C-alpha cells in the first residue's frame, strides 16, 4: 500500500522514500495546485482489505445543524474523505444529510468515502449490535460503514443513558456482564453481511485487543485511541504494528475546547498549542502549532481525526502534507511524552466504569481504589 502526499515544487515528480509507518511505502506527489485533492491524502492499508485515509475529520461535540453542515462542507471541499462519528455523538443524522447531498449531486462517490461510527457504551451486548448498527446506517443514510468500532471496552446499563450525555450516567450504573468475545462475534456477523467493511475497537488496552486477536479469524483492523504529544502511547502503537492493526489518534492536539474534561477527569487541560518546543518547530517550518502536532503523529503512520467546526481550521488541519519534520524535530517532540500521566480521558465517572472488570487503565484503577 502506498501513502501519498502533496509537496509544493516547481515540477511534478515522484520520489521513492522510506516507509512512513504501519504497512506502507511513501510516494511523494508534487502538485502545482494549492487546492488539495482527496487522492493526495495518505492512506494506510487495513488488514481486512481496503485502506483508510490518514487524515480525517472528528465530529465529537459538533451537534448544531448549521455548525456541522459548514464543517463537513469545508472538509469535503478541502479533500477530506475520512469522517469519524459515533452513535453517542448524536450527530449521525446530520452527517447523513450532508453526505446524501454530496452523493446525490455527484460531488463525491461512495467508494471514495471512509465513514466510521461506533457501538455505544450502553449497548455492550451481542444482541444489541445489529440493531444499533442498523440505526446508525439509517441515520447516516448509507448501506454500509467503512469502519465499525466498539466505542468503549466497558459497558453501562442501557436504561441509564439519558440520550444526551454519557457524563450524566450515574456512578452505580456499570454493567459488569460485558463479554468482548460475544460482542466481537456479532460485529463479525455484520461485516460478513456487508454492513461494515472493517471492524475496530476504541479505548482498548493490549490484553483486551490480544484476546480478540486470539479469539477470532477476523481480528480488529483498527484501534482508535487518545494519542497526542503528552500521551504518545508508544508501547500500544508498537503492539498494534506487530499485530497488523492500524491506529487512529483522537484528540491529537489535546482537545483544547473540552473544558468540561476538567470535571470528568479531575485534570487541567494541557495547552499543547503553546509548548515552547512546538512553537519553535512551527516557526522553523512556517506552520501552526496544531499542524506540527498533527504532522508529528502522521509521520508515524498513525491516522489523525482532529475535530473542528470552524471551516478555516478544518482546512488548516489537513494542510500538513507539504512539509516533514526532520529527525531533530521528531526527537524533540518524542521526548515530551508523559505516558499514562499525560492521559486526559480517564473516564472514571462514566457509570462508575473504574470499577468495571473491563476498565482498561489498570494503573488509574489502582490509584482510584487505593
TrEMBL record:
Keywords from the named record: NADP, Oxidoreductase, Signal
Domain of life: Eukaryota
GO molecular function terms listed in the Swiss-Prot or TrEMBL record: oxidoreductase activity
UniProt keyword NADP, yes or no: yes
NADP-dependent oxidoreductase domain location: 55-337
PROSITE patterns per UniProt: ALDOKETO_REDUCTASE_1 (PS00798), ALDOKETO_REDUCTASE_2 (PS00062)
UniProt signal peptide: 1-38
Pfam families documented for this protein: Aldo_ket_red
Family label: Belongs to the aldo/keto reductase family.
PANTHER family (alphabetical): ALDO/KETO REDUCTASE (PTHR11732)
Protein name: Aldo-keto reductase family 1 member B7-like isoform X1
GN (gene name): LOC117640162
Amino acid at each position: 500500500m502506498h501513502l501519498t502526499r502533496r509537496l509544493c515544487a516547481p515540477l511534478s515528480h515522484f520520489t521513492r522514500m522510506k516507509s512512513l509507518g504501519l504497512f506502507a511505502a511513501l510516494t511523494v506527489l508534487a502538485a502545482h495546485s494549492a487546492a488539495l485533492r482527496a487522492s493526495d491524502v495518505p492512506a494506510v492499508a487495513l488488514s481486512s482489505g481496503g485502506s483508510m485515509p490518514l487524515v480525517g475529520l472528528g465530529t465529537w461535540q459538533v451537534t448544531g445543524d448549521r455548525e456541522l453542515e459548514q464543517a463537513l462542507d469545508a472538509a469535503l471541499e478541502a479533500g477530506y474523505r475520512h469522517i469519524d462519528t459515533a452513535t453517542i455523538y448524536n450527530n449521525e443524522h446530520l452527517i447523513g444529510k450532508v453526505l446524501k447531498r454530496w452523493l446525490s449531486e455527484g460531488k463525491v462517490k461512495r467508494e471514495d468515502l471512509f465513514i466510521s461510527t461506533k457501538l455505544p457504551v450502553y449497548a455492550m451486548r451481542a444482541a444489541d449490535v445489529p440493531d444499533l448498527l442498523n440505526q446508525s446506517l439509517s441515520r447516516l443514510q448509507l448501506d454500509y460503514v467503512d469502519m465499525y468500532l466498539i466505542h468503549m471496552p466497558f459497558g453501562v446499563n442501557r436504561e441509564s443513558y439519558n440520550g444526551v450525555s454519557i457524563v450524566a450516567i450515574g456512578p452505580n450504573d456499570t454493567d459488569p456482564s460485558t463479554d468482548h468475545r460475544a460482542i466481537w462475534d456479532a460485529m463479525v456477523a455484520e461485516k460478513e453481511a456487508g454492513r461494515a467493511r472493517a471492524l475496530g475497537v476504541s479505548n482498548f488496552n493490549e490484553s483486551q485487543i490480544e484476546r480478540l486477536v486470539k479469539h477470532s479469524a477476523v481480528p480488529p483492523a483498527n484501534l482508535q485511541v487518545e494519542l497526542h504529544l503528552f500521551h504518545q502511547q508508544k508501547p500500544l502503537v508498537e503492539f498494534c504494528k506487530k499485530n497488523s492493526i492500524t491506529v487512529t489518534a483522537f484528540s491529537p492536539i489535546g482537545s483544547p475546547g473540552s473544558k468540561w474534561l476538567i470535571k470528568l477527569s479531575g485534570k487541567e487541560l494541557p495547552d499543547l498549542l503553546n509548548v515552547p518546543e512546538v512553537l519553535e518547530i512551527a516557526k522553523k517550518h512556517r506552520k501552526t502549532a496544531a499542524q506540527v502536532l498533527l504532522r508529528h503523529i502522521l509521520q508515524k503512520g498513525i491516522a489523525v481525526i482532529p475535530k473542528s467546526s470552524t471551516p478555516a481550521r478544518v482546512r488548516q488541519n489537513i494542510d500538513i502534507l507539504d512539509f516533514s519534520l526532520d529527525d531533530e524535530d521528531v526527537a524533540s517532540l518524542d521526548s515530551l511524552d508523559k505516558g499514562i500521566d499525560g492521559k486526559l480521558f480517564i473516564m472514571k465517572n462514566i457509570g462508575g466504569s473504574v470499577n468495571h472488570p473491563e476498565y482498561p487503565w489498570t494503573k488509574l484503577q489502582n490509584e482510584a481504589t487505593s
